[in-house]
Design brief:
With 165 residues, the protein is mainly alpha-helical.
């Protein structure tokens, strides 16, 4: 709705200026609309992506968060009152994302699922993290293939994993 309002700013301003029933929209208010649209754009894009997918998977959480955070951090505001509010709004959203999704960067299940998704692979992780993820996946496969087996190989793998942690 705000996007449409912005698109028809000139005709809407003329109609409201000629009308005696309603107040006109000031330049400051138009600036606030522009600022709000800038802040909401990364959230809108993430929503469009997640709604366009038939099945939203765990592997998409990190990429969607990455896109939202990068989009919000790349916003350039003008130097006026509405921009200050826009920056405050942006900071509040970023803080809320950090509080709600702080585990995404630490949880090995998120890491494994994103890494195993061929769309993302190791794009979001450093080389050290990729090695840890691969080792965890290998260990999980070995445990699956040898359930309850106390073989030397499984003990060595488990010991090596504990040493790395």
């Amino acid at each position: 709705m705000l996007e449409r309002m912005q698109r028809f700013q000139k005709p809407l301003s003329h109609v409201l200026a000629d009308s005696t029933d309603t107040e006109s929209i000031s330049g400051t208010e138009w600036s606030k609309v522009d600022c709000l649209l800038k802040v909401m754009k990364p959230l809108y894009d993430a929503t469009q992506i997640s709604c366009g997918v038939k099945y939203l998977t765990l592997s998409m959480v990190k990429p969607l968060l990455f896109g939202i955070i990068n989009g919000l951090n790349s916003i350039e505001f003008d130097y006026d009152d509405s921009s200050e509010r826009g920056q405050e709004f942006t900071d509040n959203i970023l803080n809320g994302l950090e509080v709600r999704f702080c585990e995404v960067d630490r949880d090995i299940i998120f890491k494994k699922s994103t890494y195993l998704d061929p769309r993302y692979e190791n794009y979001f992780y450093k080389e050290e993290e990729v090695k840890q993820i691969e080792e965890d996946i290998k260990l999980e496969i070995v445990r699956f293939l040898m359930p309850g087996d106390d073989s030397q190989e499984l003990n060595v793998l488990t010991r090596e994993r504990k040493i790395l942690q």
